[in-house]
Amino acid sequence: MAFESMTGNNNQAALMVALSRLPCFNALPLSQISALDAGLSQPCFQLQYQGKAYFAKYVGKGSIEPHACQLASAVALAPSVLFVKDAWLITEFIQGISLDKSGYNDADKLTQMLALLARCHAIDFAATHFTASMGAVSGKGLAELDSLTVITSLLQQVQLSQNQATVLSRLSQLLQQNLAKALAAQQDSQAVFCHGDGNFSNAIIDNNHAIKRTSSRVVLVDFECACIAPPAYDLAMLMAVNVIPAAAASAVTTKYNQLVMALNPAENTGEIVDNMTINTASKRTESSSLVTRYFGIACLINGLWYLSQYQQCQSEIYQQKAIEQFALLSDRYVSIHSVLNEMR
After folding, report:
1. Neighbouring residues of 205: CB distance < 8 A, sequence distance ≥ 6
2. Using CB atoms within 10 A as the burial measure, which of 89, 133, 180, 252 is most buried?
3. Which alpha helices (H) appear in 230-283, and where do they start and end?
4. How far is the C-alpha of 205 from the C-alpha of 217, rounded, in Å?
5. Three-state SS for 283?
6. What confidence score (pLDDT) does residue 128 get?
7. Sorting pLDDT into bands at 50, 70 and 90, what band is 189?
8. How far apart are CA 54 and CA 79, in angstroms?
9. Aminoglycoside phosphotransferase domain: which residues (predicted)?
């Protein structure tokens, strides 16, 4: 049976057997493997091997996540990668707490995530810093963001009333037109390596690192949505997924620009910004107008994705998240109110 079929049947036992037989583990006993089920979108496992803890994710064939994770781990922005092959991604296991559950206030959470994204955007996504022991990248390379294709695909996946389909399709067209105008007006916008899902839960504070050093180490995880796009897209997605309203676009963009401009590419050591060392060789200024345009796109993508998940598993959590995303759009696009009324 193909791994994809086993995943669809939620056959964790079969995946654990396949995981134990990977060459990097040399017949690992199943007793050393445990499944992680905390709302993860793909089958994930924690395992112990030679006294160390590892995180294993079955990403499926064709996923861009292994390539993205290797790029980020090469600059210590993501957990170190042990193995990439046969649709598996094996990394170190970070024993820590996610940014959303930390004791940081909202402003500090935002600063930490913006600093991580600034480092992410400085990565040379065409580089290959991988050792032979990691194996070949089995998935696709990073692709440029095609928001229209993403939204069209999601619209086809979800079940919508005629009114909802009409409203959301028209909104998608309007958002794409507004984005095209903004991109044309800012011709110097540079495409960079974007994480694509700046949820505060995707930043992990490494407790072990904090014990050993005076400053904490924070890493990004979950690169399923990584893509090549202007930094403004990542900032907009960060706002949308953390339910930060569009009115904050100017403040978020200003803070991001301050973090980028504070970096010193002339020195190898980097600069400490809000308890985080950042090394980047690029200085650019993002437009809050472009972030605002991408914000609508991000909210629509997220709302449709959450709605598709709700329709698959009937979890009210996903329904509420879909409503939150569409509600972020409702102040500016009044037609969304009819969509929300049907969802509630």
Report:
1. 96, 97, 98, 99, 102, 216, 217, 218
2. 89
3. 231-241, 249-261
4. 6
5. coil
6. 54
7. confident
8. 10
9. 87-245
Output phi, psi for 202, to 5 deg. -95, 10
Contact 217, 210 (CB under 8 A): yes
Per-residue pLDDT, averaged over 292-297, amounts to 98
The whole-angstrom separation of Cα 167 and Cα 306 is: 17
SS3 (DSSP) at 17: helix
Q: Which CATH architecture has domain 147-343?
A: Alpha-Beta Complex (3.90)
3-state secondary structure of 138: coil
Backbone angles phi, psi at 225, to 5 degrees: -105, 15
Q: How many CA atoms lie within 13 A of 169 on its CB side?
A: 12
Q: Is residue 72 over pLDDT 70?
A: yes
Place of tokens 């990565």: 123
To the nearest whole percent, how much of the chain has pLDDT over 90? 69
Grade residue 135 by pLDDT with cuts at 50, 70 and 90.
very low
> pTM above 0.85?
yes
